[in-house]
């Protein structure tokens, strides 16, 4: 593998890990929150009780170990790469005596960056694009689960595999094209504009793709909201904080938000499969099965996956150009501060909220 392809491969891996990290974090949080906060106490209530407090602090232990190991590995990273050291030795720029920086120099650098319109527009374009994309991507598994009647595990796998694979392919291909053709910065900026515009249009198209079967039990309230509680499940006093755990009537014609909303009073097993029995809202046998009712919308789901894959691939092709614009628009001595400014902008406006 050539050095160029190896560099592009590592770039794709680094970009993919930025998506894998939050996924692993959610899995770790899910596990720790299932453990009671006091290990010496065995509570007489379960996870669904409002009194349950998970051991959220346990997640910091493995994270601290991983961070410590990574810190040791990064400590061995050289201050200057071998090729860069040779280039500096052969350059007259670095033959001059090194200046001692001060607070005033830092202030001047910040002023130069703030007056750099190309850098500012590029930074805030990326920031606000990620701001709009973050919520959509975080709730994508739940969207797939509810809209296309997929299980939570299937939704997570689909979101992760499609996003990571298409993002990696997009970064590798765009990096190879940019390295070979060496387009001018204005063309790279125009391409970023095109990809973001197409991404917005694709997101709007999601509103018209999905399973249209409306079989959720309930009624429309005066304010237009969907009321899940009715007379048949009034004896269950279903709390509004009950998570979405759908059940389906035995004949597959009616879906309920949860077993409580179906009015189920008992649960058991029939032929090794769990069922809910004595459900007052289920006509006929009064039996409901866990999970959403089956619905035939495979075509819509494949169209959704194809559009999602195309959007992830297309949006990732702007990564290389975005980075090149940032590096070319600032002086060499200001590059490190410009990177820090971009990261601060992303964290303050996008990631923290």
Automatic annotation (TrEMBL):
Residues 1-16 form the signal peptide. Pfam families: Kazal_2, OATP. CDD domains: MFS_SLCO_OATP. The keyword Disulfide bond applies. One of its GO terms (molecular function) is sodium-independent organic anion transmembrane transporter activity. InterPro entries: Kazal_dom (IPR002350), Kazal_dom_sf (IPR036058), MFS_trans_sf (IPR036259), OATP (IPR004156). Keywords: Cell membrane, Disulfide bond, Membrane, Signal, Transmembrane, Transmembrane helix. It is a multi-pass membrane protein. GO terms for cellular component: basolateral plasma membrane. Residues 226-283 form the Kazal-like domain. The chain crosses the membrane at residues 55-77, 118-138, 158-178, 190-209. Belongs to the organo anion transporter (TC 2.A.60) family. This is Solute carrier organic anion transporter family member 1A1. It comes from Lygus hesperus (Western plant bug).
């Amino acid at each position: 593998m050539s050095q160029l392809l190896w560099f592009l491969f590592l770039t794709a891996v680094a970009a993919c890990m930025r998506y894998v990290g939050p996924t692993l974090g959610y899995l770790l949080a899910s596990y720790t929150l299932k453990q009671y906060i006091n290990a010496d106490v065995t509570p007489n209530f379960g996870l669904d009780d409002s009194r349950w407090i998970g051991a959220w602090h346990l997640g910091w232990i493995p994270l601290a170990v991983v961070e410590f190991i990574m810190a040791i590995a990064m400590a061995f990273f050289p201050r200057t790469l071998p090729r860069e050291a040779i280039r500096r030795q052969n350059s007259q720029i670095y033959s001059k005596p090194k200046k001692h920086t001060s607070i005033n120099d830092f202030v001047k650098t910040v002023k130069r960056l703030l007056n750099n319109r190309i850098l500012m527009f590029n930074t805030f374009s990326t920031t606000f694009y990620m701001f709009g994309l973050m919520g959509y991507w975080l709730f994508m598994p739940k969207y797939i689960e509810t809209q296309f009647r997929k299980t939570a595990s299937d939704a997570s796998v689909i979101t992760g595999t499609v996003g990571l694979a298409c993002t990696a392919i997009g970064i590798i291909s765009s990096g190879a094209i940019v390295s070979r053709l060496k387009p001018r910065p204005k063309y790279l900026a125009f391409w970023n504009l095109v990809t973001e515009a197409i991404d917005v249009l694709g997101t709007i198209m999601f509103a018209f793709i999905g399973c249209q079967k409306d079989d959720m039990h309930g009624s429309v309230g005066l304010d237009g909201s969907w009321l899940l509680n009715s007379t048949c499940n009034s004896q269950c006093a279903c709390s509004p904080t009950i998570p979405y755990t759908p059940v389906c009537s035995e004949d597959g014609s009616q879906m309920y938000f949860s077993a409580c909303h179906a009015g189920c009073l008992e649960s058991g097993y029939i032929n090794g499969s769990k069922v809910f029995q004595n459900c007052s809202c289920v006509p006929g046998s009064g039996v409901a099965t866990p999970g959403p009712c089956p619905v035939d919308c495979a075509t819509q789901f494949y169209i959704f996956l194809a559009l999602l894959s195309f959007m992830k691939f297309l949006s990732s092709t702007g990564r290389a150009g975005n980075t090149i614009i940032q590096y070319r628009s600032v002086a060499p001595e200001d590059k490190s501060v410009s990177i820090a400014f971009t990261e601060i902008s992303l964290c303050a406006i996008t990631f923290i909220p």
